[in-house]
Amino acid sequence: MNARRSPWARVEGLLLPIAGLVVTTLLWWAGVELLQEEKPLLARFAPRPTFDALVDLLQSGEIWPDVRASLRRVVIALALATAIGIPLGVGIGSLRRFRSAATPTFQFIRMVSPLAWTPLAIIVLGVGDSPVLFLLVIGGVWPIMLNTASGVQSIDPRWISVARSLGANRTEVFRTITWPAIKPHVLTGIRLAVGVAWIILVPAEMLGVDSGLGYAILDARDRLAYSEMMAVVLIIGFVGMLIDTVARALLSDRPPLFRLLQRRARGPERMRPASVRQAELAASDLDQPRHLS
């Protein structure tokens, strides 16, 4: 079976998402048309004035500082959540007593909506970036921690026993066995945390900050610029989609750029002897942990 996609399949893969967006826009327009007689204010939320406001925002550059502020908060919060979540996940996955003692507390806190901590965050941390970062971290740490713990628990204990019998210390065991085994789980957790953080970001930025996309929505509402408010909503969706696409590319086990460079370094596969390819396959198999029989 040919692994390459046919030209029609590529065209179809491009046209179907566009068709879906067109249908969604038509439904948006139809809904406004049906309801604006009862609520004339809805006419300002229609696609045409929204897209006009979107063009004005992008051309004037007024929205870019808010986009940068939101992205900066997400990156900082993601770094903090990763620094907290990976050690906690390793501890929960490898230490039975710690897992038994900490799991009820972690599950209780995880079930509380991050936004429920808003009053406490403002009282303790004041206004500004600190409470926003706190809400993002407390929402994003759980996917990283739980996925890391799942990866640690999936490791066959016999791999570690063999490594220790060969004289490996804890650092060497983590570097050669634990980290390669949990890396896909950690990357999945980070990608999920990115989505969670972006969802929490907008309502969190409505709390005492003067920049960011959440603040831009409140500012447009206060100025009764409803078309601009809808345009900011579209920008939030587009930026979120872009973040998810970039996260999938960068947080895969082997990013696309790495695969491209690897193919170029190796040269065309068909030009290389079969014995060389078999030797490389055997070497790559040795790099992967295997279950002992």
Short description:
77% of the residues lie in helices and 0% in strands. The chain has 12 helices and no strands. The protein has helices at residues 7-35, 47-60, 64-94, 96-110, 118-125, 129-153, 157-165, 170-204, 213-222, 226-250, 256-266, 274-287.
Describe the structure.
- The protein contains 12 helices and no strands.
- Helix content is 77%, strand content 0%.
- The chain has a domain at 70-205: Orthogonal Bundle (MetI-like fold), CATH 1.10.3720.
- α3 (64-94) packs antiparallel against α4 (96-110) and α7 crosses α8 (170-204).
- The protein is mainly alpha-helical.
- Mean pLDDT is 81; it is low at 257-262, 268-283 and 289-293.
State the CATH topology of the domain at 70-205. MetI-like fold
Determine the fraction of residues in helical runs and give it as a percent range.
over 70%
Radius of gyration from the CA trace? 25 Å
Q: How far do the termini sit from each other?
A: 34 Å
Features of the shown structure:
single chain, 293 residues, mainly alpha, MetI-like fold
Topology summary:
Elements: H1 7-35, H2 47-60, H3 64-94, H4 96-110, H5 118-125, H6 129-153, H7 157-165, H8 170-204, H9 213-222, H10 226-250, H11 256-266, H12 274-287
Helix pairs in contact: 2-10, 3-4, 3-6, 3-8, 3-9, 5-6, 6-8, 7-8, 8-10, 9-10
